[in-house]
UniProtKB/TrEMBL annotation:
Bias (Polar residues) ranges: 32-51
Name of this chain's protein: Uncharacterized protein
Highest taxon in the source lineage: Eukaryota
Region annotation (Disordered) ranges: 1-53
Length: 212
């Protein structure tokens, strides 16, 4: 389950916008998922200072993964229906050794949607139709995601603590990857906490009903 914020971490100290049932490990896109693979390829590398605006830098500095509420590591940018209006939800796309946020968010959404469908009288008619991910910020439809290389490099340099609840190691994404591989390679800190998953699914339903 996600770790509590620590005093020496540079993570965001603002209140959590939602209850995250999973720790922060990013994901690899797997075949057979109920959602389509990322249809977007990564952009070419650019010199950060030379090609990126101060507005981009501020956006990346303020960015927090909506699942783990930390600086996104190995970040992807979700492309939602409000993207052109300024919605930029960056999310961790790390492996099971870390927070695994993108994969866990997709799984949580799929589980919440399954519960909703079973309660829907139209379930027998339309349960074959693919369901779309919902943006965790604006609640619009997510059509895919992409890698913004300059943003990813900027955020990967941010210091975070190890995703394992009992470990206090901290470092950049590169440091954390080396640490996880050598110190606790068999640990999966992103495994689901059932109680937090139930809280997440309840919050998702309340949001969709407009009661949250």
């Amino acid at each position: 389950m996600p770790k509590e914020s620590r005093g020496h971490s540079t993570s965001n100290t603002r209140s959590r916008a939602s209850i995250a049932p999973y720790p922060c490990n990013s994901t690899r896109h797997r075949s057979g998922s109920s959602f389509p693979h990322n249809p977007f390829s990564s952009s070419k590398n650019h010199n950060l200072e030379a090609s990126e605006s101060s507005e981009d830098i501020r956006r990346w500095e303020d960015a927090r993964c909506p699942v783990c509420m930390e600086h996104p590591h190995n970040a992807v940018l979700l492309l939602c229906s409000s993207h052109d209006k300024g919605c930029y939800p960056f999310m961790c796309d790390t492996s099971h050794r870390h927070s695994n946020c993108l994969d866990q968010y997709r799984k949580a959404f799929s589980a919440a949607q399954k519960d909703q469908d079973h309660q829907d009288p139209q379930f027998e008619e339309d349960h074959q139709q693919p369901k779309q991910l919902t943006c965790p910020l604006c609640r619009g439809h997510v059509t895919g995601w992409k890698v913004v290389d300059s943003a990813r490099s900027f955020m990967n340099a941010k210091i975070r603590t190890c995703s394992l609840e009992t470990c206090y190691f901290s470092g950049s994404y590169s440091d954390l990857r080396k640490h996880a591989r050598h110190v606790h390679p068999r640990v999966r800190p992103s495994d689901v906490d059932p109680e937090r998953e139930r809280d997440w699914r309840r919050l998702e339903r309340d949001r969709d009903m407009g009661t949250c």
